[in-house]
Specification:
It contains 15 helices and 15 strands. By secondary structure, it is an alpha/beta fold.
Length: 405
């Protein structure tokens, strides 16, 4: 191996190894193309590598962390729902707005009316905001098309983002997000359609995982099971919007299918937690939606922690319930609202966020991992969850190459 790049004079939060934060106070990284070859104290740099170093970069004592992973977003859509925000402030509930034809359905109408070019342009602006704060991998769900044609359009736009930008994009098919107007009163027929579209979307290479909204205003556990069975027949992993507004037993159902993640989880039971632990399913916490909906039912953080269920943190960016575009703000909210520690929050947006996407080659700074990392104008990683309304990201390295922030 030759043509190594040395990144030195850094405070490393590797998130690897037994030490808190995987902390290396005077550290260095060696990278070759897309991979990290070595990470550790600069004083322990292997002599065998020194003659292979082609580029030597002094990071000036800056903080370095793994690249951030936003593992739950709905970035591709048309329109916005600021009027519903006002309705909720005046006392209307999320469920009332949805049942009156607002909510997801209103975004579906705007998305269907938007051109591919408009969807791509708006999604590009949104994802660039995330990238500026150090996001190097993002998940993007469909779910605002709700027809074979429009679900495919949204997934193609998500793929196009990954092709056009220095960013890794994972796509999730969320056809079972809501029932579109043309299927009103025929939810089971719509589930049949969602399952029928899935092989076509998969054959086009548009689907990395399959999701559903298992909720009293969404789909029943029995309907969700049908979607998951269709995914399993295609070899696609599943994840679930579970237990956000009520306990439907969705987490246990998802765990039965070896789900990558269950997301939201404010009403999660201990039985659901045990099932998730046994299946290796990640709990994805979405404090932005909790905050924006002014929820009061906290996810069972202490019980998740006691059972050793890994907890990810994501933006849940969407136009109705979490229109934020700052994963760093979500770290702060995860601490202030959910009482995660700053280290738990950062792990949630790196190693556990990656695991929630089925990715095990990123999220830590260690040999063999992708060379995705961020350079911050900070002294210590706990500051990432401390500051808000400020972007301390100085540089972002994606696949070993520096990108413009």
């Amino acid at each position: 191996m030759n043509a190594l790049t040395l990144w030195r004079h850094a405070r490393l939060a590797t998130l690897a190894g037994p030490n808190p934060w995987g902390w290396v106070p005077d550290g260095a990284l060696l990278t070759h193309k897309e991979r990290i070859v070595w990470a550790g104290p600069l004083a322990e740099l292997p002599a065998a590598h020194t003659t292979q170093i082609q580029k030597d970069i002094d990071l000036g004592g800056a903080l370095v962390t793994p690249g951030l992973v936003d593992c739950h977003t709905h970035l591709v859509y048309g329109g916005q729902r600021a009027a519903e925000f006002e309705q909720r402030l005046q006392g209307a509930s999320y469920e009332e707005i949805a049942r009156a034809g607002g909510g997801i359905r209103s975004t579906v109408a705007a998305t269907r009316a938007a051109s591919d070019e408009a969807l791509l342009a708006s999604a590009t602006r949104r994802v660039q905001s995330l990238m500026a704060e150090g996001v190097t991998t993002v998940e993007i769900k469909s779910g605002y098309g709700l027809s074979a044609h429009d679900e495919a359009r949204c997934l193609r736009v998500a793929r196009a983002l990954g092709d056009a930008l220095p960013l890794n994009v994972r796509t999730t098919y969320l056809g079972a997000h809501a029932v579109p107007p043309e299927f009103a009163g025929r939810t089971d027929d719509y589930v049949d359609a969602v399952c029928a579209w899935m092989p076509l979307l998969h054959a086009e290479g548009l689907v990395d995982a399959v999701d559903a909204f298992c909720e009293n205003i969404g789909f029943t556990p029995a309907q969700t099971r049908r979607v998951f069975e269709a995914a399993r027949a295609l070899g696609l992993p599943v994840k679930l919007h579970a237990e956000q507004l009520s306990d439907q037993g969705g987490a246990a159902l998802a765990a039965e299918f070896g789900a990558l993640s269950c997301d939201h989880l404010e009403h999660l039971s201990e039985d659901g937690i045990r099932a998730m632990k046994a299946a290796g399913t990640v709990a994805v916490l979405l404090p932005g939606a909790y905050y924006f909906l002014r929820d009061t039912k906290l996810p069972p953080i202490d019980t998740l922690r006691a059972h050793g269920v890994p907890m990810a943190v994501a933006t849940d960016h969407n136009p109705g319930t979490s229109p934020g575009l700052s994963l760093l703000l979500m770290l702060n909210m995860a601490c202030t609202l959910f009482r995660l520690t700053p280290e738990e929050a950062l792990r949630g947006a790196t190693v556990h966020g990656a695991r929630a996407l089925g990715l095990h080659d990123r999220g830590t700074l260690a040999a063999g991992q992708r060379a995705d990392f961020c350079v911050w104008d900070l002294e210590h990683p706990n500051e990432l969850a401390y500051w808000f309304g400020h972007n301390p990201c100085r540089r972002v390295i994606h696949g070993g190459l520096e990108r413009t922030v």
